[in-house]
Amino acid sequence: MPSREVRKYLYDIAVAAEYIAQFTAGKTYEEYCTDPMLRSEFWARATTNSSH
C-alpha cells in the first residue's frame, strides 16, 4: 500500500476506535452481552472501513 493509503487506513481505524470508546463509555461487559443495540454498534464500527 502506498504511504497515503496507509495513513488513511490508520486514520479510519483511529476514528472508529474513538466512536467505540464514546459509545461504550460507562458500559459493563454484562450490558454489552445483553444489549443487542450496543453489540450492533460496536461491531458496525469495528468492522466498517470507509476506504476499503
Describe this structure in words.
The chain has one domain. Helix 1 runs antiparallel to helix 3. The chain is elongated. By secondary structure, the protein is mainly α. The longest helix has 22 residues, at 3-24. 0% of the residues are buried. The chain has helices at 3-24, 29-34, 36-47. It is built from 3 helices and no strands.
Q: Which features would summarize this protein structure in a list?
A:
single chain, 52 residues, mainly alpha, 3 helices, elongated
Low-confidence stretches: none
Proportion of helical residues: over 70%
Radius of gyration: 13 Å
Give the number of DSSP strands: 0
Q: What string, H for helix and E for strand, traces the elements in order?
A: HHH
Give the class from helix and strand content and strand pairing.
mainly alpha
Note the overall shape: elongated
Please report the distance between the alpha carbons of the first and last residues: 12 Å
Mean pLDDT across all amino acids = 85
Strand content: under 5%
The description of the largest β-sheet is: none
Number of domains: 1
Number of helices: 3
